[in-house]
Design goal:
heterodimer, A: 248 residues, B: mainly beta, 6-stranded parallel beta barrel, binds adenosine-5'-diphosphate, binds magnesium ion
Chain lengths: 248, 305
Amino acid sequence: MLKINDLTWSAPDGGRVLRGVDLEIPDNKLVVITGPNGGGKTTLAKLISGLETPDSGSIELDGTDITKLDITERAKLGISYAFQQPVRFKGITVSDLLELAAGEKLSVGEARSYLMRVGLCAREYINREVNDTLSGGEIKRIEIATVLARHSRLSIFDEPEAGIDLWSFNNLIDVFTDMRKNLNGSLIIISHQERILSIADEIVVIADGKITMQGEADKVLKCLLSDDPSCMECPKKEVHYHGGEVNE
Amino acid sequence: MNEITKEILKSVSDYNDGYKDAYSIRENGCGVARKSTENIKIEDKEDAPGLVIRVKPGTKGERVSIPACVTHGNIDDIVYNDFYIGEGADVLIVAGCGVHLDTGEPARHNGIHRFFLGKNSHVVYQEKHVGTGRGPGIRSIDPVTEITLDEGSELEMDSLQLGGVDKTIRKTSAVVGKEAHLIIRERILTDGEQEAVTDFVVEMNGENSGVNLISRSVAKGSSHQAYRSKIIGNAPCTGHSECDAILADNGKVDAAPELSANHEDAALIHEAAIGKIAGEQITKLRTLGLTEAEAEAKIVAGFLK
Ligand SMILES: Nc1ncnc2c1ncn2[C@@H]1O[C@H](COP(=O)(O)OP(=O)(O)O)[C@@H](O)[C@H]1O
Ligand SMILES: [Mg+2]
């Protein structure tokens, strides 16, 4: 289990971004984090994967405090993060990146299967450089494929739907549905997409640097889709669902 | 031929106790082995040290290797090699060079290569430079390449220097004729106190001629690199030059690209980017489990691949 305790983070310009986040991510569940843009979702993902260091609070994975571990150490513990904005590299090919992610040489068949899962024709992409000749949607799918290749203890996908066409999006839903069924660890997806929210086990809503709602997916989703403004706009009226129990 | 030469030949060309096709091996300023073939004739140049290499019109799929090695100090080798490529020929030319020093004396190889490409011929020209040995002497390799491209011909030049050469001044000039194309890919890694200067001058004289210069360099340690390029468009043509450099430690790079368009249908573009490795690239690879040093090495290796 991933346990986040009272985490705070301020941007370099001093603005408070996360204002005390407490969160438990259970194993073998698909947890979708949603909420308005600028709410702090990506920041939370960066703190979990070690890209940023919190001002205060702690992060535990399976009972071990990982707050002080660096990015590489956390990656080696099995934390993976598919960036919201993937990085481009001159001279590094898709297959290089997949092999770095897998931590071993991949057969052509294995490399292909990761690309096919994200809806990319393997033959066309496997030797392409991960550079700026790739479109936003293409690089996004390659980013997702690299995280799939890691078979991680904890995978975080940050807005995987962004820039992706409908056909590939259907593919992605299949990928995540499939991952959810065969989960051997934790899966976090940050998303605004109703179809991704609808395959979640749990949904967490983050707004203005705080968790404003958390609970079983169908309950949170119902609340999110209702017109009741108290759900989204008033963080004071927090509704926490834990294992079906309501703690107001 | 000494053992050091053999090692250099293996690293700069596909030497395997000899070469399959035509070749000439130069060691410490002297030709030590040579073979011509039916289609590729290699002869001594009459007025200067060096070779005249003639490729028969229509020759396809053959290669010629002309490596040069310097294996001890106090040598300043200058060689003039001229290549005449017959109409419609399509060949590979490999011109590797290595300078090996076990002492403190300097050594230099200066290869002056002239290429005359006949109509519709195609040449891939590979040039790989290395410096080896434990001696502190300065290893210099100063290639001069002069290219004349006749109608419809194409030269692709791949130039590689990935370490060990202390000083290099590389001058390449070309005159590109009608519908002819020149592609130059250069990759240079310098470290320590090394210096590398690259100087391209390309005159686009023929209608629909094209040039593409791509330079990738990495300057580590306290090394210094300078990239100068000048593309002169005298006819309807396309020209593109791209200089990408990564700085590490205290490396320095100067890039001075120049474009001159003397014809209204000359379309010339230059791109240059110099900077250290993007932090987000290192971060991304670290999230895949690499250490910072491993990530940096991967990024540099990919960049220079
Ligand atoms: N490095 C930074 N410098 C300044 N502001 C930042 C930085 N990183 C995040 N922020 C700010 O923090 C807020 C939350 O950002 P983010 O976590 O990306 O939100 P989300 O992913 O929910 O859209 C935004 O207002 C954003 O501008
Ligand atoms: Mg975000």
